[in-house]
Amino acid sequence: MALVRSKERSAEAIARVLDNFVRLPGSRMSMGVDPLVGLLPVIGDALVALLGASLFVIARQLNVPWPVVARMGWNYFKNGVFGAVPIIGDIYSFHFKSNAINAALLLRAVKEGAEGACPLVHSPLTILDMAGLFLLIVPTLLVIVFESWWFWDHNISYVSFLFPSPYTTRR
């Protein structure tokens, strides 16, 4: 039971740091490091996605059913793909807070358990768990890196907005 609660606290802490770490002064809104680290071209969104992927590992260790993990994966995918778009993506990440949603899904699944019984069991990851997580996480990470790299290669980033190139090519 103590190990299960420790995993739940870890999931809550990860979600809080990524999505709700600081309350914005004079408002009821909060912000985490997800939109801030996402400002770093190419690697920022991939790094945040890796941190968010740890929620999937915790979910499977706590035997969260695969349909719930798939819903978490959809939220993860949307946040990653939209979040990789400069400026608009960070606004989306600030508003959507996929890690907080995923942590809530995880905690609700653990609380409800199968047929109303709370499965307070921590289990090691099986090879099927690792394969499923790999298929869920790696394609999303590849899309995020490719998309971020595309924007960077086409000079569409915060750097290009803040420091426009003095040289332009005209055809």
Automatic annotation (TrEMBL):
<protein>
    <recommendedName>
        <fullName>DUF4112 domain-containing protein</fullName>
    </recommendedName>
</protein>
<keyword id="KW-0472">Membrane</keyword>
<feature type="transmembrane region" description="Helical">
    <location>
        <begin position="130"/>
        <end position="152"/>
    </location>
</feature>
<keyword id="KW-0812">Transmembrane</keyword>
<dbReference type="InterPro" id="IPR025187">
    <property type="entry name" value="DUF4112"/>
</dbReference>
<keyword id="KW-1133">Transmembrane helix</keyword>
<feature type="transmembrane region" description="Helical">
    <location>
        <begin position="36"/>
        <end position="59"/>
    </location>
</feature>
<dbReference type="Pfam" id="PF13430">
    <property type="entry name" value="DUF4112"/>
</dbReference>
